[in-house]
Amino acid sequence: MTQKIDSEREKYSGAYGTITLHSFSERKASKEADFFLPYLSSNMTLLDCGCGPGTITVDLAKIVAPASVIGIDIEDSQFEIGRNKAQQEHVNNINFQVGNIYELPFPDNSLDAVFAHAVIYHLKHPDQALKEVYRVLKSGGIIGIRDADHDHIIFTPSSPILEKAWNLLGQVVTINGGDPFFGKYQRKYLQKVGFINVKASASFDYAGTTEKIKQNGEFWADLILQKQVTAVILNHGLATPQELETMSQAFIEWGSHPDAFFARARCEAVGKKP
Q1: pLDDT tens readout for residues 170-182
Q2: Separation CA 96–CA 32 (nearest Å)
Q3: What domains appear along the chain, each with residue ranges and CATH number?
Q4: Is a pLDDT exceeding 60 seen at residue 6?
């Protein structure tokens, strides 16, 4: 019998601030889902789990049209971005709704494809989430997941305060029940659930131009001061409010450094339901 999961106790380790949403709304399937696109074709029903603003979802909907695509997330305030993009680009085979990956609102064996970008590594029970995805996929259906791995962050120039900031952001994920190092274990988890022909790959998020470095610095500066993040850090005595302010300012200063560069590994895996 599948263990009942209390989804209300799951905590997202990111944030929903204006800068965060703007950054996430710039994501495109051509990059974030590049590893998954060769497995998609028209007339494939698709679910995007933890879709956020939904811009990737809209891109995926174009590929599998005219089949239906649904994007779900626990926070519906983000959906306006995706809905606007879908309307502007005349994408009509898409719907956004509140939902969680532990209790997908679909019958057994009903979907052709499921995508989850930067979702699984936030979860306390990744195996149970993947079992639920397995349940709703048809025989021959495919899953594509992409998650960060905190072991592989390239960040220069660095400093003790920025090193501490990176460690804190990883600790927040761990305290909330996630695994910031989950990416490297994707094949193990997919195969454990029962997926076959599991194929893993990796790519990087990166910032290497003046404009992108500035935006990246602003992103991290904003994130480390977001209430969802600071509450965890302060409640566990990991830093003081003054230290967090200093970290935020350090990210801003890093964003204006002429030699700055950032890259973070994203591990990816595709599996098939027998």
Answers
A1: 999 999 999 999 9
A2: 19
A3: 12-272 (3.40.50.150)
A4: no
- Is pTM beyond 0.70? Reply is yes
Name, in order, each residue with C-beta under 8 angstroms of 235's C-beta and a sequence gap of 6 or more.
Answer: none
**Cβ–Cβ < 8 Å for 225, 245:** yes
Which structure tokens are listed for 242?
């003054």
Q: How many residues does the chain have?
A: 274
d(CA 180, CA 93): 34
CB 274 within 8 A of CB 139: yes
Q: How far apart are the two ends of the chain, measured CA to CA in Å?
A: 20
Question: What one-character-per-residue DSSP string does 27-72 give?
Answer: --HHHHTTTTGGG--TT--EEEET-TT-HHHHHHHHHHTTS-EEEE
3-state secondary structure of 95: strand
* Burial class for 4, CB neighbours closer than 10 Å (0-12, 13-18, 19+): exposed
Using DSSP's 3-state secondary structure scheme, residue 253 falls into: helix
* Chain center to CA of 169: 15
Tokens representing 57 are: 């979802």
Six token digits for residue 227: 């209430």
